[in-house]
Amino acid sequence: MASCTCNIKYTDVAVIGNGPSAISLSYFLAGNWPYYTGEEKVAGIEDFLHQKLIEDVDKSIIEQDLEYLCEGLEGRSSNPVAILYDQLTHPGADIGYQNPSMLTWQHRLDRHIPHVVIGKGPPGGSWQAIEGVWQTLSLSNWMEMPDMPIKEWMLGRNIETLESRRATISDIRDYYMAYIREKDLENHFMNYATVTSVRRINTNQILNKESGEIECCNELLHKNMWEIKGIKKVNNLESGIEEMTPFTVRACHIVMATGTFDRPNKLKTPGDKLPFVSQSLAEFETFIESREVHSRNDPVIIIGSGLSAADAVLQAKSHDFPIIHVYRKQRKDPMLIFKKLPKVLYPEYYSVYQLMLGQEKNPWYTSYDNHSVIEINKNHRVTIKDNKTSKEMRITCSKVLILIGSSPDLMYMENKGRNLGNIPDYAIDCKYNPVSIDQYTFASHKEPGLFAMGPLIGDNFVRFVQGGSLGITSHLWKLRTFNL
Question: What is the model's pTM?
């Protein structure tokens, strides 16, 4: 990354977020290019895709026409490039095959694209904040980064291979940290840095406030650039005190690669900010283990019908705490995530779903489906309402845990990013209003020079977010090569 005497860092690409999306993109931008092995077709690779790939088998996938390669492919992502990349790295995964990747990688110094990855904490994004003993939802090999099989890495660290084929959060966390070290990406990462503003600037009009002269420029300067400002945590080596230092990065292109776990969704019910109300699974675990209860017989109320709520049910159940589980959906709603999880791979979530359905009985658990929370009062009483009959009831509890999803924090963007979605002037939401992008280049339809990938465009699984790395790198390289 180039710099200038005015302490502003200049680069081609600035990536906001340092989770799996950003890590994989950094590997691509660092000049690591994938090639199709192509010698023999394996089960899980479509015949027509194999034929297309061997037409230019000596060319990297990055250099090829992605739209042409994606034609006719189907998969579990809504993005065609994500499906293409997934089929090449996990051939036949959705029908049970465990075939090795059909890609080989070459490090090309001449293909390096200068970039910086900016993240609030250590590399790994939200995975660094999740409790380490829990298992991942995805299979372990679906969590891996390009060109570093997780099974080989685990064996190298003498970690037992899991019979369930799922890894623990702590293993994945360590894997991502090791990946950055082993792939020599550390110099591209600006960690413990919070972005506070992003704006478009015209470099021809930037003046030094003190001298009144145009600030220094170099070959990276672009007529229209992005300026990213923020605050970075640094340790003062002399005093040993942690300090906050401002930073400025200017880039020709910006990639939004943050997840959607920044801000827990609010219940927006009277009393939802009382001291005994929480939206943190980690805080709830501390509460459960400390047995800090209002009354030993008063239940904990868990609100939500997703996997985080299920994790909370499992925690409370393991400590024999009485549980009241409240959620708005009906227990047989086909959109419940539990209906999509195989029993063999996810026995713990299957057991929670059986409790919700009433097919498994537990004296400590009571479920109220199709109910809404009306009020939480300071006396630990919660009012819930049956959405069908409108009948209300009050429950005395020791703790309330609200786990109803989360939203991305785009406060640093103009208008909080509301101009970037498929639905104008509405907040970005991975399900209902993702960032509007070109499906092959991942470039924003609304802002030239801006890209988005991962959960912000609706791809929540690590195995699919890497399609964004392929699409963005391919587009940026073609911009350089053909000066499009």
Answer: 0.84
